[in-house]
Amino acid sequence: MKPLVLCGRVVPGAGLGRRLGFPTANVVIPPQKLPTYGVYRVEAVWESAGHPAVCNVGVRPTLGPSGEVWLEVHVLDFDGDLYGKELEVRFLEKIRDEKRFDSLSELVDQIRKDTEVVRNACFGPKQE
Questions:
Q1: What is the overall mean pLDDT for the chain?
Q2: For residue 16, is it within any domain?
Q3: Domain with 69 in it: what CATH number?
Q4: Does 126 reside within a domain?
């Protein structure tokens, strides 16, 4: 089965992901095209190059009820500017459902775990 592929423009967000140590590209996609809420292993493609990434689709419940649905992509080992670029997001695997955490520190711990899942799937586990 072919993976779901969505394309959209990267727009500025509030910068919280960067402050938490996990900068995200906020991609504008019509809500009716989005998959079920959750965290996914994806490939982010721009300028004809694919990059392993973690993607959250949902309402970001830990941050409070805004009603807005977000597609946020954290590209592994990338620290650049994607604002205004068209980003293709290839959904490869659902990691978990979206969940509300009691604190930002719990959320950061879970993002670290999600990122490791993607890193291991792409590059294999770290050799000690």
A1: 89
A2: yes
A3: 2.40.30.30
A4: no
